[in-house]
Amino acid sequence: MRAVLHRDRVRVRVVRYDRKGRPEGRVVDIVERRKAPIIGRLLHEAGIWLVAPEDRRYGQDIMIPKNAIADAAVGQVVSIELTEAPSMYSQPMGRVVEVLGEIDDPGMEIEIAVRKYEVPHRFSPEALAQAATLPDKLRPADRRHRVDLRDVPLVTIDGEDARDFDDAVYCEAFTRGRGKSHFEGFRLIVAIADVSHYVKPGEPIDADAYERATSVYFPRRVIPMLPEKLSNGLCSLNPEQDRLAMVCDMVLGSDGAIDAYQFYPAVICSHARLTYTEVAAVLANTRGPEAQKRGDVVPHLLHLHEAYRALLKQRAKRGAVDFETTETQIVCDENGHIEKIVPRTRNEAHKLIEEAMLAANECAAGFIESADHPALFRVHEGPTPERRVTLQNYLRALGIGLHLSDDPTPGEIQNIALATKDRPDVTQIHTMLLRSMQQAVYTSANAGHFGLAYGAYAHFTSPIRRYPDLLVHRVIKAILGEKRYQLDAGLVSSMPPAAPRRPGKATVKPAKVMSKELETWETAGAHCSANERRADEASRDVEAWLKCRFMREHLGEEYAGTVSAVTSFGLFVTLDALYVEGLVHITELGGEYYRFDEVHQELRGERSGVRYGVGTRVRVQVSRVDLDGRRIDFRLVRDGELSPPASRTRGAHAATATEDLLSVQEADRAGKAATRRKAGKKTGGGASTSGKAGKPARDRKAPTRTRR
Questions:
Q1: CB of 494 within 8 A of CB of 413?
Q2: Could you write out the three-class secondary structure of 462-498?
Q3: How confident is the model over 382-398, as pLDDT tens digits?
Q4: What is the pTM of this model?
Q5: CA 398, 395, 315, 215 torsion: positive or negative?
Q6: Domains in the chain, ordered, with CATH?
């Protein structure tokens, strides 16, 4: 392994199997070396210049000749390219190609993340040149062959800090027929920015958009999929400005069923830019100041709310899964440092817009499927057999008697969620339900959406920030024009191959015999799915860095928290007040031997019988923060536990997990548990902590980097 680096593609020969039947191998050939830049800090030790990679998966430092450090100074963050690959007997060599700045510079964590995860963050000169030639407003030719909806009082509803508005909505009561045939329902219009009118296949902007596949969101910064002239200008449904849109025009029954729908290109004019907070206030009090200020659109908002309540009936009828989870929002100051972390609340306005978008997406998938045209569907599969067994054992350990069939339905999962919503450990139960299912992917082979209980589902509503949505728009336009959209095989094949899916992720099985056209769509789906994961990983990395930076200012302070995960090497605890997660290592639990009970996912003291499981309430002290490793360590404050010694009886705190589920939990934490696996192995599933009970983690010697 000394001759290879992270992300090298290698050929391996299996040489033996260990006691658990896992194969062990030897690298026999290096098939491909990635030429991506490596980000790290420049160090000068014993007269030698070297770079310690920010991504610790590289495993070894990069030596830099004195004449190859450019104008970088010791301690600065730099980007390097390899000039000499590692070998069995020598370290890799490189040269500095870019100096990013000091580690504490505002926004440095984002600059590191976009390079560490190879997120494209600069548009090509050709794309910028093309964007400069686009008009500033609609031209007469743009309006041809479009339905004029400018008199319809469509409105946008987004967050206070939103800059691009890609969807507008309108709802009215709908009545047809007379007498016995009288029918009441709703006409719901969802208008989506027509990005496909400006971004054409084969053009530079399209190539850049496909390469990115998605916008990437960081605290205080967004790396958009499209140039700003499009994302915040021509394609943004700004109020009182004419814009082009693709419209999904639906008729809903009083029970929320979609009785009819049609798609068509249109010209619209948003009548107001509303925020979620504003709309929620109007719905809560139709005579309040917010309602008086927006009096002209209040009737339509009330109809929209009624349509939302009707759509909820269909959601419940389908058995769609709805979990109670807590999302957080990082609030930063002007320098990009965390001021506070607050829970993100979803009010009625959030939910009604979400249901309207789901309805439009369902119609898009049905329209494409009825035309038998290839496209990218959003596919989400349910629990694998292994995860179903794991979940069943977990529920049984909690005393929850609800049964899961061999082929679970969304309704079964939702029934469990509803039955446990009033339990004190509801967050942990719903998290386990969520992790039992597979990740959603983009694929040409429609297999339905398990979580939403849709037989067919596609992304149609966000073409400004997601490339699959742009493709869906092109397909719908082609169907409306009685044509067939051919995905550019040259564009798809020009991109680097997508990373293979990890075990346990959604794996859609395509047909045994797949046409060349479908293969192209499948490749595009894999590319978009992989880049979506890349964007999520980059965002999590930045959030982890900010949280570590934030917690450095709270060293030594004590907080109440809840155990969110249990491993063989310790407890992950989430602080109640700060919504930050850290590790209580097993050596900090007290002076006895703790054994990891994999069945109930808990650590149990052999002498005292004290048990720590998911949901246990504890009090901890912040003992150590490793900014480079994105790790926060806590020390258990035993005298300050908020519940009886962690719980000596099985109850709401008991949990279960298999090795597979544990690996999923660790992966969800962006690999931070994996960095401690070495420490965990020392315990062998349990550890004697005698003599170390009161020793804070920061007093222990930090692990040193091995240099070769």
A1: no
A2: CCCCEHHHHHHHHHHHHHHCCCCCCCCHHHHHHCCCC
A3: 898 888 888 888 888 77
A4: 0.83
A5: positive
A6: 9-103 (2.40.50.700), 125-380+451-543 (no CATH), 385-437 (no CATH), 555-699 (2.40.50.140)
